[in-house]
Design brief:
The complex is a heterodimer of chains A (235) and B (185). Chain A is of the alpha+beta class and 235 residues long. Helix content of chain A is 23%, strand content 15%. Chain A contains 6 helices and 9 strands. Chain A has a 5-stranded mixed sheet, sandwiched between helices. Chain B contains 6 helices and 7 strands, in the order βααβββαβααββα. Chain B has helices at 23-29, 34-41, 70-82, 91-95, 107-115, 159-170, and strands spanning 11-17, 42-44, 58-64, 67-69, 83-89, 135-140, 150-152. The longest helix of chain B has 13 residues, at 70-82. The chains are: A alpha+beta (235), B alpha/beta (185). The interface between A and B is medium-sized, with 27 and 29 residues.
Chain lengths: 235, 185
């Protein structure tokens, strides 16, 4: 007999070693995430997948499912905490959606819509993060970085180049480019790398595309991130 | 015979644009024929639509734009003092928006760039007439200056979003933007 746990009262089957998030998505239940990617080990940094399992807050992406657990995810309490996390992500960087080429395709923005974030609520940090436009094909706008390390992991583990890294601690943490000059142009980064298309927000952008698809006709203008994620899971 | 019920008092609404582009006010006009329904329900106090210069006691205050100078702070506080419900209308009021893109530059550098170094300027100097409101060192969203009751994001929020929000509010419901009406861009 297969093992199962309860997610918001619904039974979810799982195999040993599967995380709460993997099992839930496989069974057609949505748990949000930003830093999680099926091809990489869990990172557990964005905390958007926060659930209450057996009474404790855990990251669903990093917690193996256990037989008989009662897990709360889509509840006013958990969704309120997710909204708070999103608000902190928004004030920590410079997220000015109207000027961002990723607007409408951005997962951070789409989660803001999903959890009805109407205000960033906190005091804005307005950090200084200069743009790197040195590369002929790609643009780096560090203002929008959420430190998910997907580009770091993709470049290191798949592309075999280690173009990106996080450096500094706490509030001084930032994404950096592994070149003596610190410029993307001085690395072997290519627009065909996985790292060039894995950014969930608008940091790593192709040049010369801009607003080819107009605002209003983009991915999350026409579909919620919830339904899109579940659809991708099925296919 | 019981007397006829008194007509419902019209809600009094004030609007203003601080560090904004009036795009949110233009979008407000995009509610089109709903404007006829709206004027049955509300009357306007200070607003670019009435040209009244000072805000009086109001039920609803709509603030477009962020806070970029001392006059913005003054007007915003006046609105807070006089409006029972204060609403941040649009991206700039909600998070500083476009004007806040100068926040990573020192203010003096911005002023020098515009008034002294711009090509074609002869003997340019930074204006310092005492009548001019002093700019703030950083542009701030309005919730960092006064308490704000509701937020309506978007650049601008669409006409339908504004109409949904206002009708919810006027009917006494908590305003809610259903999916498709909530946008940050």
């Amino acid at each position: 007999m297969t093992k199962q746990f309860l997610l918001d009262g619904q039974p979810v089957p799982f195999e040993d070693g599967q995380t709460i998030l993997e099992a839930a998505r496989k069974a057609g239940h949505y748990i949000p995430s930003l830093c999680w990617h099926q091809d990489f080990p869990p990172h557990g940094s964005c905390k958007l997948c926060i659930v209450k399992a057996a009474g404790r807050h855990v990251s669903a992406c990093a917690t193996p499912a256990k037989e008989g657990w009662e897990v709360e995810s889509n509840t006013p309490e958990m969704n309120g905490e997710r909204r708070g996390l999103l608000q902190m992500l928004f004030v920590e960087g410079n997220h000015f959606c109207p000027s961002c080429e990723k607007s409408g395709n951005c997962e951070l923005q789409a989660l803001g819509y999903e959890y009805e974030m109407l205000t960033p609520r906190f005091r804005h940090f307005f950090p200084e993060r200069p743009v790197d436009a040195s590369h002929p094909d790609m643009l780096l706008d560090f203002n929008r970085c959420i430190f998910c390390e997907l580009c770091v992991r993709a470049s290191r583990d798949v592309d075999g180049k280690s173009v990106f890294a996080l450096t500094g601690r706490g509030i001084h943490k930032h994404l950096t480019v592994n070149a003596e000059s610190g410029r993307l142009a001085d690395t072997d980064f290519s627009k065909d790398d996985l790292a060039a298309r894995i950014c969930p927000v608008g940091v790593i952008l192709p040049k010369g595309r801009g607003f080819t698809v107009p605002i209003g006709e983009r991915t999350f203008d026409t579909e919620t991130i919830r339904s899109r994620t579940l659809k991708e899971e099925k296919s | 015979m019981s007397p006829a019920p008194a007509p419902a008092r019209k809600l009094r609404v004030a609007t203003t644009s601080l560090a904004g582009c009036f795009g949110c006010h233009m979008s407000f006009l995009d509610i089109d024929e709903h404007l006829f329904e709206l004027v049955e329900l509300v009357e306007f106090d200070r607003s670019p639509l009435t040209d009244i210069k000072d805000v009086g006691p109001c039920d609803i205050g709509l603030i477009e734009g962020g806070v970029c100078n001392a006059e913005n702070v003054h007007v915003l506080r006046e609105f807070r003092r006089h409006c029972k419900t204060l609403i941040a209308l649009g991206a700039c009021a909600v998070n500083g928006g476009l004007p806040a893109q100068r926040n990573h530059l020192p203010l003096s550098e911005c002023l020098r760039e515009v008034y002294q170094f711009r090509p074609g300027l002869d003997n340019g100097q930074i204006p310092n007439d005492p009548e001019l409101p002093l700019p703030l060192d950083k542009v701030r969203p309005i919730h960092e200056v006064v308490r704000v009751d509701y937020f309506l994001p978007g650049c601008p929020p669409s006409g339908p979003a504004i109409w949904k929000f206002l009708t919810d509010l006027i009917a006494g419901r908590t305003p809610r933007l259903a999916n498709g009406l909530l946008h940050y861009d």
